[in-house]
Amino acid sequence: TPFDAEWFKKTEYNFIWPKDNKKVQRVLDELIRRRRFGHWIGDSVVQLEAFKLYFENPAKFVKKSSCNLDKAVHASSIGDIYLCYRYGVLGNVKNGDDLREIWNSEAAENVRGEIRKCGDNCHFLLNCFFEGDYPFIVK
Fold first, then answer.
1. Is residue 31 within 8 Å of 48, Cβ to Cβ?
2. CA neighbor of 64 nearest in space, from 123, 133, 127
């Protein structure tokens, strides 16, 4: 899937993006409240607060720290290997490409360099790659 910073505005994705932001904020506030009272909620309070900002206005949501997607690989359901979906496929393990060779390739190193310079919003930074500190500011 090609990178699209404004995917949430597209008609074909309307069914995914929440329509009632006030309800989203209430749900996240309730999750934060429960997390603070010791309920087992997997996401930290800081991460839930970041979700609130993201859903309020994803176009204004930017990270303060550098992206950390250069430290892991992503494998798609068809075996395509990425560091970041934005920068394209580096190989395919189902087709016999060696993951170690992909990771150590010049192409992967070039992508890691691009990732380190990236300043775009990205849902990966809220989900699997959220770091413990609050790595975002609102412009």
1. yes
2. 133
